[in-house]
Structures are given as C-alpha cells and as structure tokens.
Amino acid sequence: MGNSSSAGSFSLKSFHHRYRSHIIDAWVEKLKNEAGEQYAARPRVELRGTISQAFDANYHFLIDGKIGPINRFIDQITKMRLEAGFLLSDVQKAFELYRTIVFPLLAAEAGIDDFLVASTRINQCLAYTIHRFSDHFQGMHEKEILAHNIHLKHEVAARTKALRESELKYKILVEEINDGYFVIQDQVIVFANRAFCSMHAYTLQQVLGRKFYLFLAPQNRKKVIDIYNRSLEKQPAPSTFEYMRLTKKGEIFPTEITAKVVTYEGKPANIGICRDISERVKMEEKVRETERMAYIGQITASLSHEIRNPLSAVKMNLQILEKNKEIKGNDQRRIHISTREVIRLERILNQLLDFAKPLQIKLSPIDINQTLNSCIETLEVKLKEEQLSVVLALDKSIPLFQADGARLEQTFFNLLLNAMEASSPDGNIWVSSVLTGSKSGPVAEIAIEDEGNGIEEKYEDELFKPFFSTKTKGTGLGLPNVDRIVRAHGGRVHAERRNSKGAAFRVHLPIR
C-alpha cells in the first residue's frame, strides 16, 4: 500500500469513476466462479445488470450518503433471488465480493490514512446492505411459509371431506422446505420434517415422542422452556428468538426459531420453524471484527506518530548513557534494563502497526526447508542461552513453490519463540516438514513442537484471536499474525496438545 498521504490527495469519488468498469467486470467473474452453482448458471447479461445497479447503489451510499438507492436495489434483488430459490448465504457472499475487489485496488493506490477512511466507509456500506438484505430475505421467506400454512388451514376447515388429502399435501410441502418444521404438544415433539431431523442429526423415529428440550443446549433450556410455557398461557412471549440447538453428537449451533400456538388435533400445540443461522452469525462477527480492526488501525496510526519519535529519543539517550564508563554497578544495570524495555515497547508498537496494516503477499519461489533452517540459525545464540536443542526432520522431497519467504520467516520465527518460551532448560524443540496431499493438490505441512506445559483446553478456541494472551507481557498479536499470514497463502494453522507433553503448531501451505 502507498505511504501515508496528506488530507485530500485521494478521492473516493474519482476512484469509483475510474474503476467502475473494472470493478463490475471483476465482480461478474467472481459471481460466476466463486458464489455458488446458482450464480454460475445465471446469464452474464443478467449478472452485469444487477451488479451495475449494486455498484451505483454503493456509490451513492459512499459518496453522497444516500441509502435510498440501496434500499430500492435490495427490494428488487430480494424478490428476484427468493423466487429463483437462491440460498441466503450465497447472496450474502455476492455482496461481500465487492470488498474483496475494491480493497486491493485501494491498498495499491491510497495512502494509509485514506485507506482507513475509505475501508471504514465501505465496511459500513456492506454491513448496512447485508444486514438489511438478510432481514428482508428472511422476512419474505417467513411470510411465504406462514401465508401458505394459513391457506392450508382454511382449506382444511372448508373441506372437511378432503381432510386426509389436505394433510398429506401439507406434510409433503413441509418436508420440502430447507428449514426445520415441528409441532410440540405437552412438551413432546409430535411432528417434525426431514430438515428438523437433519439439523439435529437424528432419524424421525428418534425425534418423535421425545421432550423438545432434549434438543436444546443445556445453557438455553431454562430460557426456551419459559418462553414455551408463557406462550401456552397466553402471556407476553417472543414469537421469534435465537438459541443454541443440541445435536446427537453433542455439537451446538446457533439457531433461530419462529413459533406460534395453534390447535392441533383438538389440543393446544406449538408449531415452529427453526433455521440454522451459523453463516449469519459468522458474517455478523466478521463485519464487527472488520469494523473493530479498522478502528484499531486508526488508533494505531495515531499512536505510532505520537509515541515512536519520543521513544526513539529515549532509546538513543539510554544507549549513550550505557556507554558512559563513569556509570557503574546498579546504575549501569538500571540503564540496561531501561534500554531493554524501550526495545520491547518498540517491538510491541511494530506488532500493532503490522497487524493494523492490510497484509500484502509478494510471491516468489522458496525452499521451505531453507526458510526453516534460516530461522533456526537466527535463534542459535538464544537457543544456547536457554539450553535448548532443536531436533530437525525435514522432508527433502518438498519442491520449490510460490510464497512470500519473508512473511513465512516471520511466521516460523513467532512459533519458534513461543516454543522456546514454553520450554524448560535442556528441553527439545521439534521442527519437521513433510509433503502431503489434499483434494486441491500437494501441501507442505510444517510442525513446531515443544515439551512445555501444553495448551489448556479452555484456551484452545482463543489462541488465534487478536489481543488474547496467557503471557504477562504478551501483546496477543503473535499468533493472530501467524494465522493471518498463513491464510493469505491459502493455508491454515492449528494448535494441538502432544500425546506426551507440550504443544504442537501445524502449518499447512498449499504448493502452487
């Protein structure tokens, strides 16, 4: 990305005018190739028309602050995609593609300050668009289902002689919808469709006749039972709410339910539609994280300017005093400690800056084993000081492949430092590489293992989240930076506990 530019040197309006055709062309291509089978099957002329409208609606939001064009476009596209049977997640992804196209262009042209302002504005635009579309899409979906159910109810009341036939049509319809449909009577599930059974990983025989709360995560049971009882007693109770469902395997997933009290076979009952909202929750979390990172970037840029210069001055003066032969004993030790802490503060500041900036990957052919050896050689003195040994097991059959060598060195350096900090004197650190395969092609797997205390189970899901750290002096940015670099290479990294003792971090990099 370009250097920090002065205010007014970059125009988001001019940027959109210049790149309009390029962004629309790239958006159409990504829809055809990355947004699912239904988008791939649509004619290009139709996609170009809707994408052009989406681009113009985004433009009015970003440049003029107008939401009217976006609202009108969402009304139009929701009806189109719902009638065509599109998945909500696919359409959400289609909106998201705009960000993946525009951000690299901004990063190449705008300065840091301009990029942060523009990216924040774009994130706000997409957050508004995706949230409004999701609500609109689900609202229309629910209206269609409820309208049809009401129609069936009237048909049953009007045509008593055809009751059995109407019930059969009703059940067939319910079986075909993607959302879970069920009926609860006296706390027992008396009807469920295939989608409901599939969502909970049970067969129909295993669902019918069981208490409904057995399909709820324990932490949500009291809440849902209370809503159920209040609705039957005709007390104020939400008709739509979120909870965590429980599957046969013990897994829990975020779910949204819409329920209503009706008369079923002459007795009061609750009918409900439950919908898996895992993708929506992930998308909302992603949007919040993006906004949070944009805010962190703004603060970091400001802190960098205010702290870096005085910090450098302090370090330089301390280093001068350190060379003064008249300062001895404890005073010399205090200066040495102060210098070391200033250097640590500089390192933290650099980590913050590195994490706040958009990540750029420069690909070139690399030898992954040589990269690992280089990192170990750099740490050789520190390893001797800590009385640690490195045990190497490198697979020489791994070929050269395209990657950013400097970024991967940063990744392995972080993992090696973590392993050293976790190890006791006279311990071993195991570094290995192996050529493996996956459905998409060959993969280089790199493992860095230690013999420390291992990873506590309660921290396993938190390790790669920004600013989480179990160290008293940690910034919580080392592992998130590792994860970010590996993902930018199309790979993945995960941590696990070793069978004997210690922790293992495994990096999987696609060979391309």
Please sum up the structure shown.
The protein has 512 residues and is of the alpha+beta class. The protein is built from 16 helices and 12 strands.
Written overview of the protein:
The protein contains 16 helices and 12 strands. The chain has 512 residues and is α+β, with helices and mostly antiparallel strands. It has a 5-stranded antiparallel β-sheet, sandwiched between helices. It has a 5-stranded mixed β-sheet with strand order 7-9-10-12-11. Strands 6-8 form a two-stranded antiparallel ribbon. α15 runs antiparallel to α16. The N terminus is likely disordered.
Topology record:
Elements: H1 12-34, H2 37-40, H3 44-64, H4 68-83, H5 88-109, H6 112-158, H7 163-176, E1 180-185, E2 188-192, H8 194-200, H9 204-207, H10 221-232, E3 240-246, E4 252-264, E5 267-276, H11 278-322, H12 329-356, E6 364-366, H13 368-378, H14 380-385, E7 389-393, E8 401-403, H15 405-422, E9 428-438, E10 441-449, H16 478-488, E11 492-497, E12 503-510
Parallel strand pairs: 7-9
Antiparallel strand pairs: 1-2, 1-5, 3-4, 4-5, 6-8, 9-10, 10-12, 11-12
Keywords, please?
single chain, about 500 residues, alpha+beta, Beta-Lactamase, five-stranded antiparallel sheet, five-stranded mixed sheet
CATH topology of the largest domain: Heat Shock Protein 90
Cα separation of the termini: 25 Å
Please work out how many helical segments DSSP would assign: 16
Query: What shape does the CA trace take?
Result: globular
Query: Number of DSSP strands?
Result: 12
